[in-house]
Amino acid sequence: MTFHAFTNFGWADADHGLWRFPEIVPPRTGSELDFWIELARTAERGRFDSLFLADAVGMGGFTDDDLRAEIHDGRMLLWDPATLIPVLAHETEHLGFVFTNSILQDHPFTFARRASTLDHLSDGRVGWNIVTSYSPNAARNFGLDELPPREERYRWAQEYVDAAYALWEGSWEEAALVRDVATGAFIDPDRVHTVDYSSPRYRIQGPHLTAPTRQRTPLLLQAGGSPAGRDFAARNAEVQFLASGTDEKIAADIAAVRDLAVRSGRRPDDIRFVISTGFVVGSTDEEARRKADELEAKADREGAVAYMSQEIGIDLHALDPDTPVEELRGMVSTGGMSGVLEAMIERMPKSANPTVRDLMSNGITRDATVGSPERLADQIERWLELGVDGLAVGIAIRPGSLTDFVDHVIPILQERGIAQREYAPGSFRQKMMGYGDRLPDRHPGARYRRG
Ligand SMILES: Cc1cc2nc3c(=O)[nH]c(=O)nc-3n(C[C@H](O)[C@H](O)[C@H](O)COP(=O)(O)O)c2cc1C
Fold it and tell me: How remote is the CA of residue 133 from the centroid of ligand 1, in Å?
């Protein structure tokens, strides 16, 4: 199984209010960079596959109060995750780095160049979490009145990735960088090409300004859960992130997306599935429960509900609290994350006819597995048996949640042969997918290659 330390490059993260734990805010002690370097080194000590940097380019649920709640609890403070990667890559040897970049935020020419630079500086250790954004505020930060509907966003995303593939895969031939002292040719002009990419949104002449990197195209990750999102993932993603739902839902999601991937000409193993989830570890189940209660006591309820509204694309405060949660399925707006809504509904106890009030009173550890290291290892083993390839381990308390997992859970998983003891050689793609540093020929990005 693969393991990914999942966090934002901010100080208060998505776990509302937990910054009040004394250890969590980096500037309180020492330098901020030292804090992140230490976090990356801890992940590498635990033989994690990557540090996954989630991100957003807009905030706020549906109302000014929601926005105020997210400002108040600190979640809205987000630094730019890509900028952290060169430093962390320099301070680690094997760890991969996933950064999130929305199609809203950059022109693909600028983005492809930045991604190539990161792959270059890390020698093939970066992955791109391809997101179309889920908040109307994000759309308004980039000149749109509203977030376009999902189908349109994923059509846009396809144009966007095609433009990036053309630049990464189709502009420079392998041996173009000749550095021939005798002729004075630094780059061979016959081996670098314009791409002349054209789609309804973009026209890019090229050439790409950066030379081929170890992976050329960074490892491609995606987390859409709607039909359009899954379709996009099945065609393009090498790793799909899933919200942690019931076992049945996880198994069904994996089967459905894998089937779609095969129908689009890929092999079943060309797409891997990673569940996003949290853990609270204690030396015993009781101690873990106490820790979870402590997290709940410090949680900021208003911030958590504002974020929940945003996550599911439904204004929870505007609803009658007695509305059955099942009815939320019919209320989905253009925003929100389909997989998260489904997982939230699925996880509510069916017998109690759960309502919106129950959903809103769910704690911030609602998705977390809470228990002793052995209990956590048992749960992880069950996921493995369901066909899950990896886990994005949410770090509620930084660095404590990661250190606990690395020191107490990973050794048991290594003992059981579930977690690696040493890194395999190669780029992030080779480590994760085992098919080499580059995209395989059957991936749609390979269409843009020359010769
Ligand atoms: C586990 C998980 C992690 C995600 N991480 C991010 C993120 O960091 N930034 C972001 O803008 N969207 C993120 N998303 C949202 C998705 O990329 C996607 O935009 C959203 O789910 C809407 O598409 P959908 O309706 O197809 O699910 C995440 C979704 C899931 C399930």
Answer: 7
